[in-house]
Design goal:
- By secondary structure, the chain is an alpha/beta fold.
- The chain folds into 2 domains: 269 residues, 3-Layer(aba) Sandwich (Rossmann fold), CATH 3.40.50; 59 residues, Alpha-Beta Plaits.
- The protein is 30% helix and 23% strand.
- The protein has 12 helices and 16 strands.
- Helix 1 crosses helix 2.
- The structure holds iron/sulfur cluster (2 copies).
Length: 371
């Protein structure tokens, strides 16, 4: 499977467009498309953050892909995302504005329709249905545009994880609550990815995020744009570039167990694979890599045991908290209250999903280990 790798040191419009053109030519994307198709672009717009924070897909990646589609006669291009928080016009307007998505408007529309539909899943799935935002249901062709990041709960965020933003608004925390354990949650993500099935994934790793991703980390200038039709193998490849062991990331280990990752078929094209990179800093919650030190057949029970011992909880840094309530709104366990303009956490019932940390605009939530 062709894996396109381009070195792009910074966000420069013409260079990004040129590389998108080259990548799509190498992947022969034109052959997939017909002028009357509805094409959906799914960036990562997790919250209203400026592009330079590296939490969201850069607008120049989104606008370059939309421009390429427009140049190839595709007129129905929609940009859609269900960010953290409510899936409403007011919230989406702010997210589009702050994330710079209007840059793509000459070539694409920004979704402002807030319906969703329940989609049945194939036999054998744990989840019998997924509620997906309407643009996903209606699309003929989906281009997944994730941001490359470390992630407090899943360890890694790329193509598979980006598709969690196809679940409408506050139904996302409900899924966290239904699948509080990392194994079950990762399996849910994997099943979701098999239902959404994007045809193409272009990862924005020009400025990635390390540390307490997906929103509270720090930018990492990696200078890479990755594109592939095989999202799973690409995610495994991208994680290894970050210095992560892909098999220590539960969703990637599960994808491998399901026969979805094929490193032996990976055919790198474009610029050379970068060597000697400084490994990405892990999130403070990171306790995911110890399993790689034990034999494969012991990894699952060992991981489960160590997770109990090393469980992490959110810890408020009160001086940074402005009492906005976004953490409480996103907490699936409903254990956060705002009192005297400060967030108050009840430890009992916490499922360590870190949705609160993800949604905090002030980086006021740190991580505390159970022991
Ligand atoms: S912890 Fe963050 S999200 Fe929660 S109320 Fe304080 S500032 Fe808002
Ligand atoms: S307090 Fe934070 S980590 Fe705990 S359940 Fe609520 S959102 Fe998840």
């Amino acid at each position: 499977m062709k894996q396109i790798i381009f070195h792009i040191p910074k966000y420069e419009e013409n260079q990004i467009y040129e590389k998108i053109c080259q990548a799509f030519e190498l992947l022969q994307v034109e052959k997939d498309l017909k002028p009357d198709m509805k094409v959906l672009l799914k960036p990562n717009l997790i919250m209203a953050r400026k592009p330079e924070s590296a939490a969201t897909t850069h607008p120049l990646i989104v606008s370059s892909v939309a421009r390429w589609l427009s140049q190839h006669g595709i007129t129905q291009v929609l940009i859609a995302e269900s960010p953290g928080g409510p899936y409403t016009a007011e919230h989406l307007k702010t997210v589009y504005q702050v994330c710079g998505m209007h840059a793509a408007e000459p070539y694409a529309k920004l979704n402002m329709e807030f319906g969703f539909e329940s989609v049945p899943t194939p036999e054998g799935f744990v989840n019998h249905t997924f509620n997906l935002i309407k643009p996903v249901i209606e699309a003929d062709y989906i281009i997944n545009l994730p941001k490359l990041k470390t992630h407090a709960m899943t360890g890694y965020s790329g193509g598979i994880k980006n598709l969690f933003g196809t679940i409408p608004g506050l139904q996302k925390p409900q899924l966290h609550y239904r699948f509080p354990d990392i194994e079950a949650f990762s399996n849910m993500l994997l099943e979701l990815s098999l239902v959404v099935k994007p045809q193409l994934t272009v990862i924005d790793g020009i400025c990635a995020m390390e540390g307490n991703g997906p929103t509270g980390g720090t930018p990492y200038s990696l200078g890479l744009l990755l594109a592939s039709r095989d999202m799973y193998t690409q995610d495994s490849f991208a994680a290894s570039i970050m210095g992560l062991d892909p098999m220590s990331i539960v969703m990637l280990r599960q994808a491998k167990e399901h026969g979805l990752i094929h490193p032996e078929e990976l055919e790198p094209i474009g610029d050379p694979i970068p060597q000697g990179l400084v490994p990405f800093q892990r999130p403070d919650t990171s306790n995911l890599d110890f399993s790689s030190k034990v034999p494969g057949f012991l990894q699952k029970p060992f991981t489960a045991m160590m997770k109990r011992v090393l469980k992490s909880y959110p810890k408020l840094e009160p001086e940074k908290c402005i009492g906005c309530g976004k953490c409480a709104e996103s907490c699936p366990a409903n254990i956060i209250e705002i009192r005297d303009k400060k967030a108050r956490f009840r430890k009992k019932g916490c499922i360590s999903c870190f949705c609160c940390q993800e949604m905090c605009p002030m980086k006021a939530i740190a991580v505390k280990k159970a022991i």
